[in-house]
Design a protein that fits this description.
The chain is an alpha/beta fold. It is 46% helix and 20% strand.
């Protein structure tokens, strides 16, 4: 197996981390007090040539935890007018996270990665809700890094000159329907496509594998010396 092929793995590409795209819909901005209402996770895969793409999707509507705060403006924004409606088919935070963690741990192990890392748009927000819900549910096998994330808002600002998800997707050539936005399922799928496009675009530009850039730099230096 060549050095290049060895580098074309999730484990090598992200320093042993298994990236998982996450989006949450909530009843406010405070992860300690406000309800988690919807969560989606999309795992990623890399082919033998090093191209990244979305893989498996898991999605849940979530019942507000006991005593959770429900901010009216937040519910109007995400369109979840009645978080307690039986038509939502919602499950508890514990059930949703257990199932997501189970899938993530399985895929992480299969990829040979040591730990998972959350990829999200304005990632600190989603990360804080996942971590707090995990703490409330007393889940001890949380596969995600406790503070590190990959933030597609920051990456999009660098690569595309845009930080708003819809505008970044449009610039990257990823289809985005504003009428579908603010659904955890839809936003996660678009964020996954966006992240893959940025990573793959960097590869197309010659930024990965890194040794190729280093080799070209060394060659240019040798030619200057000659």
């Amino acid at each position: 197996m060549t050095q290049e092929t060895n580098l074309n793995t999730l484990r090598a590409r992200f320093r042993g981390y298994f990236p998982v795209v996450i989006d949450v819909e909530t009843a406010g901005f405070n992860s300690n007090t406000d309800a988690l209402l919807e969560i989606c996770a999309v795992t990623l895969k890399m082919d033998d040539d090093g191209w990244l793409s979305p893989d498996k999707t898991i999605h849940f509507h979530v019942t507000p935890f006991e005593g959770a705060n429900l901010v009216k403006e937040a519910l109007e924004f995400n369109g979840i007018r009645d978080p307690f409606s039986p038509l939502r088919g919602a499950v508890s935070e514990e059930h949703a996270l257990k199932e997501i963690f189970k899938l993530v741990r399985k895929e992480q192990k299969a990829s040979g990665c040591q730990r998972s890392i959350i990829v999200a748009h304005n990632a600190n927000f989603d990360h804080s809700f996942v971590m707090e819900a995990s703490r409330r549910s007393l889940l001890k096998r949380n596969p995600f890094h406790p503070f590190a994330t990959f933030d597609t808002a920051a990456l999009s600002g660098l690569a595309l000159g845009q930080t708003v998800l819809a505008k970044a997707c449009k610039t990257a050539g990823v289809a985005f329907d504003n009428r579908e936005a603010h659904s955890a399922l839809y936003d996660t799928e678009r964020t996954a496509e966006l992240f893959c496009e940025i990573v793959n675009r960097w590869k197309k530009l010659g930024g990965w594998p890194v040794f190729e850039v280093e080799a070209e730099s060394e060659q240019a230096t040798d030619e200057q010396i000659d």
